[in-house]
Amino acid sequence: MELNGLWRRMLCRALLLALVALMSTTVLAADLKVYHDKFSAPSWQGPFEQMAELASEELGITWETIGYPTTDMHQTAVRTSLPSSRAPEMFTWWSDFRMEALYKTGGLVDVTEAWDAHADEYNPALRAAFEFEGRVYGVPTNLAYWSMWYNKPVFEKYGLKPPKTWDEFIEMCEFLKGEGITPLAHTVQGRWPTFIWFQELLTRLDPDIYEALMIGEINYDHPTVRQAFDIWQDMLEKGYFVDPGTDLFAEVPRMFANGQVAMILIGDWYTDGLDSIGLKAGVDYDTFVVPPINPEVGPVIIYEAAPLLFSKNAANAQYAVRIADWWLSPETQARWCSILGFIPPNSKTDASFLMEPKKNLLNEINEGGYRLVNRYWEATPTEICEAAVDEFARFILNPDQKEDVINTLVTIADRYWSAQ
Amino acid sequence: MRRALRKAAPYIYILPALFFVGAFLLAPMLYTFYLSFTQYDLMTPPRFIGLDNYRRLLTEPNFLTSLTNTFVWMLGTLLLPVGLGLFIAVVVDRVALAGVFKSVFYIPLTISAVATGLIWTWMYGPDLGVLNTILRAVGLSGWARSWLTEVPTNTLAMIAAWTWKMTGQNMIIFLVGLQAIPKEPVEAVKLEGATEWQTFRYVVFPLLRPMTMVVVTMSLINSLNQFDLIYVMTQGGPYRSSETLAVTMYRESFTMFHMGYGASIAIVLSIIVILLSGSYLRANLKQEGAQ
Amino acid sequence: MKRRILVYLVVVPLCLVWLLPVWTSLLVAFKNLDDYASQSFWQLPSQWNFVDNVKYAWNKAKLGTYFINSLLYGVAGAAGSIILASLASFSIVRLRPKGANLLFALIFSGTVFPFQMYLVPLYKGYQELNLYDTKLGMMLFYISICTPFATLIFRAFFSTIPNELMEAARLDGCSDLRIYLQMFMPLSLPAAAVVAVFQFTWVWNDLLFGLILTCSADTRPIMVGLAQLQGARAAANMPGLMAGAVIASIPTIALFTALRRYFIQGLALQTAGE
User: Fold this and answer.
1) Helix H segments across chain B?
2) What are the tens digits of pLDDT across the range B38-51?
3) pLDDT above 90 coverage of chain A, percent
């Protein structure tokens, strides 16, 4: 039967393929492994591989770089292997409360020694983001500052300048709206970005209240927090924002490039996305820090610190402090940050490689005596944060449900803190 | 000896499949069942807490939303991708250009769930989205909306995207079934003057039953476990309004790392799936046995 | 006649609806970044940039390496599940041993559970058994996960084959194994083709398990490569991503086209072969 022959041929081929595949095995050459979650856009795969080469030249240690394109699978891989010797020696993570559960298992290497050697080179606020009970457990991979990125041609066309006061800022929003341009971007898509405007408004009102709220000293019904919600509601109802269903990464950059939306409040890593659709830093876009709402509040900027952590149980954990010390040095930081275009966290690192807007932002932060405040995502417990971003989304879509949202937030925070 | 072997022979055919499924699917399932009675964050060993996870599930305010959405998905999937798949298979079978039609409906199947999600997020975008652009262009700007942030529009919009993806698969299984139907009874009733509808209703559809069973069962299971598309398009949002049980389970397990609690949702979900698909299958198998 | 009217009135517009997302995303794959940023979805690119986009996707995501891996996993998953499922279904439907339905339910129960919950136990188990990050481990898993659906299809298909055929063969003195190999398998080409196409496609498009059960480029499947082109935190190069998605779906479309005649004209083929 002819068909029988076809079957037999197909089967033979499949078996042959299988055999060939089984005979090939993977050879592991590197001393260490690093797991990271920036495997798509942005990609840290290439940069980590370049750093591995540098490390092998300068320290005689090299590592294999393993990237995960989704944060959930990255976290699953790290968490599951952390208690065992299969743990990666190094892995990227998030700071503060997002790091706490890992610290509590005792699975992280204490790298305080390395930080002490570089004490005069770093802002203490950054170290604090990786610190538990006086000991430090990570080194920075990315220190991002959160500021307003604006469309420069639009500003020039209407003779607008970065606002110095909150009133000027609101006036500008009103003006742009009148010209048919949506002043501000925001979104509920992707869940997490809903905290952006909440943290901004509250820190512009009172950074002390913001920090107290983050660690549960006050709750979401505090008068200043309510005031932040009031201002937010007003801005939402006046139509300063784009449709909240607009995707911040797929749609907003295009609308920004077309001049449909004028300003985006976000971390400085966002410029990757603007550059990727062909915009030029300093020509097409620039940045300013949002002015304080309460004039008595000094210069404040929100930062986001992403750490590289070291696992204690990993097979080659003994290299951790040496690598940490090397990683923190001004020279290594210069190399890493220049590959990725990051603002260097080390104050002794030569930052001349930065794009103009970031260079100016860094100068302003250094010279203006800015206070650094950690962003909401890490600064408040994960259990609260994950529930709160959904409530913020409800508020953005239904500003009239403000009271209900505040009450729910109070309950969420109460439930968490009373269990501690 | 020989007789024992002959008696065992039928089982030997089943054994390989059973071994693979048992080792790689059923064993992990049992482990998850165990986890559902524990508290576990992947780092510290699981701690036995009895029925606490299940108790928590019943008091969770969002449980009802997830359950409702899960059933909306189930109904929507049975109505749209299955209904349309059957319709297209029957209508397109053996007509001119059938190959072209079949290929068109098949294309979405070759696209991964993640890419499907991206494409449809983009179709539904409020400002630059394809759908709203078309609506505005034809003077229906009143119909343009933020498809993925309005409730319950978002769930329905995602079911539409799922319909786009899955109709082709159902169509093909139905087509395979149609091929296997003997020609004689169909010709016979046609000669007796039956209309197309009568032929379909009383001859073709009953003969199609084995394949209908496959399609309905798979659709039940896939829709009840619906996760991929939602996770790419809305992540269950805004404010958890489009979560299904599978999305809630994923959120608890892989965002919050409440592995035990996530496992208990998985168990509840599986029980629902087994009850529904099992009773459907049983009813059909019985009917089959009677014939 | 009536049917032809239905085809033109309903199926043609439906086809157009179905093609709209395909067409718009395909168009993006041909645009350069400027056109993508500034044009509406329906506008044709000012410059046809497809080749550059493909190059970008191919190089950035190292699709070449992953391509071979996924081909292997897809073939293993499809072929393995066809063998396992047809054997099991033959016995369940035709030999009907005691408890056949229960055994079928057991195999079938592999699909009822939400797949995501397999992740952690498999990850841990694979590390213990040294199957983690191996091609063998990936193939074994894909064969397993493809088997329940394949069994459902074969069971349904075998039950449509007239019993008389089998009785006749038995009277001729054929052994069960021979009946399975020489009668049921050739007759079940349509079912096998469907399983092959669906399961290959499923394996080809799987990201989740490919991600959690492997960590090196030597073993990772193509969807991991494709995921590299997506933006997690920054806007992706959409034309590049779409070009990547287009090349990544070539094998599945090719397989469908190649096997289409077996399951769409299955009956005609049988009569011609005999």
Assistant:
1) 2-21, 27-35, 52-59, 61-77, 83-92, 98-106, 113-123, 130-137, 153-180, 183-191, 196-199, 205-207, 209-224, 228-233, 245-254, 259-290
2) 999 999 999 999 99
3) 84
Mean pLDDT of B101-110: 89
Which residues of chain C have a CB within 8 Å of the CB of A276?
33, 234-237
Inter-chain residue contact B270 with C113, CB threshold 8 Å: yes
Q: Encode B154-192: b = buried (16+ Cβ within 10 Å), e = exposed.
A: bbebbbbbbbbbbbbbbbbbbbbbbbbbeeeebeeeeee
Is some CB atom of chain B closer than 8 A to the CB atom of A40? no
Distance from CA of B225 to the nearest CA of A (A): 19
Chain A neighbours (≥3 Cβ pairs under 8 A) are B, C
Residue A77: list chain C partners with CB under 8 A: 123, 212, 215
Name the CATH architecture for the domain at B61-290. Answer: Orthogonal Bundle (1.10)
Q: How far apart are CA A192 and CA B43, in angstroms?
A: 25
Q: Residue C268's closest chain B neighbor by CA? A: B179
Q: Which of A22, A37, A278 sits opposite C135 (nearest CB)?
A: A22
Contacts of A141 (CB under 8 A, 6+ apart): A44, A92, A306, A307, A308, A336
Residue A145, SS3 per DSSP = strand
**Residue C63 above 70 pLDDT?**
yes
Cβ distance B24 to C105 less than 8 Å, yes or no, reads: no
Cα separation of A37 and A17, whole Å? 33
Q: Which domains are delineated in chain C?
A: 1-48 (no CATH), 61-273 (1.10.3720.10)
pLDDT recorded at residue A69: 87
Superfamily the domain A145-302+375-419 falls into: Periplasmic binding protein-like II (3.40.190.10)
Nearest CA in chain A to B236: A191
Is A250 close to B121, i.e. CB distance below 8 A?
yes
Beta pairing partners, A108: A311
* d(C-alpha B207, C-alpha B196), whole Å: 15
Cross-chain residue pair A79–B256, CB shorter than 8 Å: no
Q: Which of A110, A114, A69, A65 is nearest to A90 (CA)?
A: A65
Instruction: Answer whether B269 sits within 8 Å of C140, measured CB to CB.
Output: no
Nearest of A35, B130, A53, A356 to residue C27 by alpha carbon? B130
Reading the block at residue A350, the tokens are: 């030569």
Domain(s) labelled CATH 3.40.190.10 in chain A stretch across 32-143+305-356, 145-302+375-419
ipTM of the complex: 0.88
- CATH number of A32-143+305-356: 3.40.50.720, 3.40.630.30, 3.40.190.10, 3.40.50.800? 3.40.190.10
Assess C228–B contact: CB distance below 8 Å, yes or no.
no
